[in-house]
Specification:
The protein is an alpha/beta fold. It is built from twelve helices and 16 strands. It starts with a helix and ends with a strand.
Amino acid sequence: MRDDVRWMRLALSLGRRGQGRVWPNPAVGCVIVKEGRVVGRGWTQDGGRPHAETVALAQADAAAAGATAYVTLEPCAHTGQTPPCCDALIAAGVARVVMALQDPDARVAGRGLARLRAAGIEVALDCCAAEAARDHQGFLLRVTQNRPMVTLKLAMSVDGRIATASGESQWITGPEARRDVHAMRAQHDAVMIGAGTARADAPSLTVRDMGATRQPVRVVLSRAVDLPQKGPLFETAAQVPVWLIHAAGAPAAASDAWQGAGARLLPLDTPDVDASAALQALGSQGITRVFCEGGGQLAASLLDGGLVDRLVVYTAGIALGADGLPGVGPLGLRRLADLSRFELMERREIGADLVQVWVSR
C-alpha cells in the first residue's frame, strides 16, 4: 500500500502539468511500474489528447506487460476521437491497475473498471482519492453540476482594500506575488473579470514571462457589452480567446463590434448577468477551471452564491484606509452563521507579501 501511494502521488504530480491546458478533458496522470521501476509515465496532452494512459503506454512499450498502471482517474471506456484507454491497457497486458477516482461521466462511470476486471486485470480503487478529488475538482463539478471550479483571487492591503478611493490598484502587491498570479492563471482554463474591472484597469489577462504556449480564455461578464472598444482585450481578441457573457437584449452595435474583433459572445436568457448562470454557460462550453480576478462586486456575487471553491488571498504590508475600495462588496449578511467558511490549506511568504490559500468546506 505504501508503494501504491508513492506511485499515485507521482501520477498526480504529472497530471497537474495538464491543468489549464486540456479542457474539456480531465488533467490525468499515469505511471506504469514494473518490478519497482517506472517504465512509462504520461499526462493528458494539450487540448485533451492523447490521454495520459496512451502516452505512458507508448513510453513503456513491451515493458507494460505484467506491470502495474497508476491512473488518477478511471480509464475511459468510450470511443471518441481516440480509442478507449481501458482497451489500450488490456491490449498492453498490464497485470494491475490502481486508480484514484472513478469517473462520473456517464460514458465511463464504472465501465472502464468493469472492462478491466472482465479482462482478468486486478483493479484497486481510491488510492489517494482525496488528493485526486482536489486535482480533478473542476472536471468533476462540470460533469456533475455543469459548472467549473472557481478560484477567487484577491490582492489586498492588510485592511482588506483592493484599490485607493480613486481606483488606483497597480500595484498593491510586489513583483513576486504578481508572477505567482501568472503561474496560477496558467493552471486554469479561463480568467474571469467583471465589466467594471475591464473598464477601470484595461487588463490583458494573459500569462506572461513564463514561457506559456497556451493562454487561458479571457472571460468578461458584462450585462450590456458596454466595454471599451480599445485596449488589450479588444485588440488581441483574434489572437487570444475573449468570451463575453452578457444579458438578453445587449445592444447589437456593441456586440457586433466585439464579434468583429474576434470575441465570442455567450448570451444569457436573463435581464442581468447572474454569476451562477454565467458559470453554467462556461460549463456548457467545457470550461473546468476558472480563475476570477474581478472586483469586489463580482467577488461578493460568487461568495454569496456559494460558488467559490478556492480562495487565494495575497496580502501586502500597506493600509489604504476605510475610503479604499473593499476586496469584497456588500453581502447583506446579518449573522455569522450565514457566512461561507473556508479551510486554510497553505500559507507562505512571497517577496514582501503573504499568500494564503483557502478551500471551501
